[in-house]
Every structure is written in structure tokens, then in C-alpha cells.
Specification:
Length: 198
């Protein structure tokens, strides 16, 4: 039986693995990131990595679950008194800043093994469902406050917000060196909300 100290060590190692996977998925993408690269980044043997995560798909699922949980925590930190549209602006700004910093993992939409792993991971699905519900509620509230176009379906707006996190425009603008990261984020937020506002 593991001692409390040993359990804490295992938890800390798992956090280090997830931190490394999060950064590597953001910089390299899912296809390029290998378990060897993750193990080397953390400074552990590949066998130790597999004790925590039996496959790359499981590691990616846990990394995304943690990101969704973090995003939900950011949403909960927003002041209740803020209008819903302002909360959505703040969240989109936060996502874009994270994306520019390389902190949003890139997962392919065409990898069957990864898709199967995500769709059968209860923690991932629960975190995603919670985030979808929270964002959908904000969109509905913003519509009721006449701040968003009621003709646009709520799920369309929520999906469009997700899509901004992997928008290649950010990379293009960053490489062009014409704008600061702050300016890129401000322009992207402005352009998005001009399109969906009432």
C-alpha cells in the first residue's frame, strides 16, 4: 500500500506529465508529439510514463479534460454582475491569449483512435459537457439581453468560440510581426463579436 508521501509523489509526477503534454500539444500538435518526447521532457523513463497513461490517446484526453476544467474555473471567477456579452468577450480574450502562448493543445479531427478515446472518456465528456452548458447559458443570456443576434443558433456561436482557439489567423498575424500579441487578440475579439452581435 502506497504511503501518503508516495501518493503525493505520484500526483506531482502526473501533474508534471500533464504540464509537459499540454505544452507539447500546443507547440507540436498531437501527431508530432510522441510518448518518447513527453518522457524526455519530464525526465522520466518511458515505462514510468506508461504507468500513469497507458496510451498517447489517454494522455491527450486527460490533458484536454484538465484544459476544460481550467476554462470552467476561469468562467466561475467572473463577477456575476458582468453582462453576459462581457463575460463571453473576456473568455474569448483569455482563450486567444492562451493560444498565442502555445497553451492550447492542437488535436486532429481525423484521428480515429484519438476520437474513440475521447468519446469513451467519462471525465473528458463531463468536463466538455459542463463547458458547453456554461457557454451556452451565457450565449442565451446575452441573447435575452439583446446583445447577440437571436437568429444565430446558440450551438453555432459556442462552436465558433471554440473554433477561434485553433484559428490559423493567429499564427499568420504573429509571424507577420505587424501587430503585438495584445493587438492581435483585440482585433480577433472585435471581429468575432461584430459578426455575432445584434
Amino acid at each position: 500500500m502506497a504511503t501518503p508521501y508516495r501518493l503525493r509523489q505520484l500526483e506531482m509526477r502526473e501533474e508534471a506529465i500533464l504540464d509537459a503534454a499540454h505544452q507539447l500539444l500546443g507547440k507540436m500538435g498531437y501527431e508530432e508529439m510522441t510518448m518518447d518526447v513527453v518522457a524526455a521532457e519530464v525526465g522520466i523513463a518511458k515505462a514510468s510514463l506508461y504507468k500513469h497513461f497507458p496510451s498517447k490517446e489517454k494522455l491527450a484526453a486527460r490533458t484536454m479534460t484538465r484544459l476544460f476544467e481550467r476554462t470552467n474555473a476561469e468562467l466561475e471567477r467572473l463577477a456575476n454582475a458582468l453582462p453576459a456579452i462581457e463575460k463571453l468577450r473576456i473568455m474569448l480574450r483569455w482563450v486567444l491569449v492562451e493560444r498565442l502562448a502555445g497553451s492550447i493543445p492542437h488535436l486532429p479531427s481525423t484521428n480515429g483512435a484519438l476520437e474513440q478515446s475521447l468519446l469513451t472518456d467519462e471525465a473528458y465528456l463531463a468536463a466538455l459537457f459542463t463547458l458547453n452548458a456554461n457557454l451556452s447559458a451565457l450565449v442565451e443570456q446575452a441573447k435575452s439581453e439583446d446583445a447577440l443576434n437571436p437568429a444565430l443558433p446558440t450551438d453555432f456561436i459556442v462552436t465558433a468560440i471554440y473554433a477561434r482557439s485553433c484559428d490559423p489567423t493567429l499564427d499568420y498575424m504573429q509571424r507577420g510581426n505587424s501587430y503585438s500579441g495584445e493587438e492581435i487578440v483585440a482585433h480577433m475579439v472585435s471581429a468575432f463579436f461584430v459578426g455575432v452581435q445584434r
